[in-house]
Write a structure and sequence with these properties.
The protein is of the alpha/beta class. It is built from 10 helices and 23 strands. Helix 1 (28-39) runs parallel beside helix 10. The structure holds flavin-adenine dinucleotide.
Length: 393
């Protein structure tokens, strides 16, 4: 990095030229692309807003979390999980894998550097990336801030009146903090289901709000992960036929979920995932707690009161706490300026597998809605593409 000091609007700005790409974000995607670049002989610089790598996993996930997909689908390029890891590694095992991955490839992000703006300078033909105290310049910018950068907090009528705690799942750690409490869990995706299950196991009383339709699939079918089966079938059969098969097996093994208040969408699970990014819930035990009545399914909330909630079906209940399992969103529109490459929701406009490359040396990794498998594919593509340019410099 070459440094100089510039004045702008009377304020001094530390400005550095970065040899190689600037990567924004030190999650699995940022680490994977830095490692792939290194394998191709290209240096890079990672700027990370938090104080650790994989901060989503270290700071914003609950204790009991395990990978949703089998480990072979969650490995990053050039380094496998240790053999003694189970099929579904725990969050702590995944973090230790990430730490050894960074060590193995000597990837050393700069921490506490939240990128506030990044913009292509058309006159100078390079990217200007700004943090609160510095400017970094490079020919290449790699966006690795993730599909889950910020929590989604919905506007629910009356929520500001509620006297108890209201938290998002990103700060939920364990159900032990909610023992004997009546807890309203808003949302029924993977997080809503798993948090409700964790609450149950810690003797809390969860009420899960299911406003929309949802596909629930068993995590495994015939002892094989549903994800593996789906990937294999998609090689041979049309998508709609695969969806029919998944729903047939799901109905056979889980029973009719509609009777439990969990309506299935009209579109099949994989078709829906491809069209909207909405992931089917992979059941890890919540459904049996719903069947036994330990997790109570509620229709949409009409209004939150000082002590509880009024529901669409006219019921009214008291609660001690509210947990918002309402998901995450990309933060790219907040800091990346003037590219036209992203939608207003911060996802690349070009769909997978071609969303990794924009114009003027802009790249994205980890925005495929395909988890870590998509990350690996993007990282390899980006490193190959930049390495070609690097060689002829
Ligand atoms: C509960 C949960 C379970 C999951 N389980 C799986 C699974 O089993 N398998 C799977 O494949 N995927 C899973 N995922 C998806 C998950 O998003 C990916 O596994 C993975 O974390 C994505 O990596 P990423 O690097 O793209 O994004 P992230 O892990 O979100 O990392 C992005 C990084 O960018 C940083 N950042 C954001 N904005 C800025 C900024 N302006 N400046 C500087 N730094 C910034 C963040 O602090 C963060 O460290 C799960 C997600 C969640 C929430």
């Amino acid at each position: 990095m070459d440094s100089s000091c510039k004045e702008e609007n009377g304020n001094p700005v530390n400005s550095s030229w970065v040899h190689g790409p600037i990567i924004v974000g030190a999650g699995p995607s940022g680490l994977a692309v830095a490692a792939c670049l290194k394998q191709n002989g290209v240096p890079s610089l990672i700027l990370e807003r938090s104080q650790c790598i994989a901060s989503l996993w270290q700071e914003r996930t609950y204790d009991r979390l395990k990978l949703h997909l089998p480990k072979q689908f969650c490995e990053l390029p050039f380094l496998s999980f240790p053999e003694n890891f189970p099929k579904y590694p725990t969050k702590h095992q995944f973090i230790s894998y990430m730490e050894s991955y960074a060590r193995h490839f000597s990837v050393e992000p700069i921490f506490k550097k939240a990128v506030e703006t990044a913009e292509f300078d058309h006159v100078m033909q390079f990217w200007r990336v700004r943090t609160h105290d510095s400017e970094y310049c490079s020919r290449w910018l790699i966006v690795a801030t993730g599909e889950n950068a910020d929590s989604v907090i919905p506007a629910i009528q009356g929520i500001e009146k509620f006297r108890g705690p209201v938290i998002h799942t990103s700060v939920y750690k364990s159900g032990s903090e909610f023992k004997n409490q009546r807890v309203l869990v808003v949302g029924c995706g993977n997080s809503g289901m798993e948090v409700s299950l964790d609450l149950c196991r810690n003797n809390a009383i969860p009420y899960m709000v299911v406003r929309n339709s949802v596909h629930i699939l068993p995590r495994e079918m015939f002892g094989i992960s549903t994800f593996s089966i789906t990937m294999e079938l998609l090689k041979w059969l049309p998508l709609r036929l695969v969806d029919k098969f998944l729903l047939l097996v799901a109905n056979f093994t889980l029973g009719n979920t509609e009777r439990l208040g969990l309506r299935r969408p009209k579109t099949g699970p994989i078709e829906l995932k491809n069209a909207t990014g909405k992931t089917p819930v992979l059941d890890v035990g919540a459904l049996s707690q719903i069947k036994s009545g330990k997790i109570k399914v509620m229709e949409g909330v009409r209004e939150i009161t000082e002590t509880g909630a009024k529901f669409m079906d006219g019921q009214e209940k008291e609660f001690d706490s509210i947990i918002l399992a309402t998901g995450y969103k990309s933060n790219v529109p907040i800091w990346l300026k003037g590219t036209g490459f992203f939608t207003k929701d911060g996802m690349p406009k070009t769909p997978f597998p071609n969303g990794w490359k924009g114009g003027n040396g802009l790249y994205t990794v980890g925005f495929t809605r395909r988890g870590l498998l998509g990350t690996s594919s993007d990282a390899i593509n980006i490193a190959g593409d930049i390495a070609e340019q690097w060689r002829i410099l």
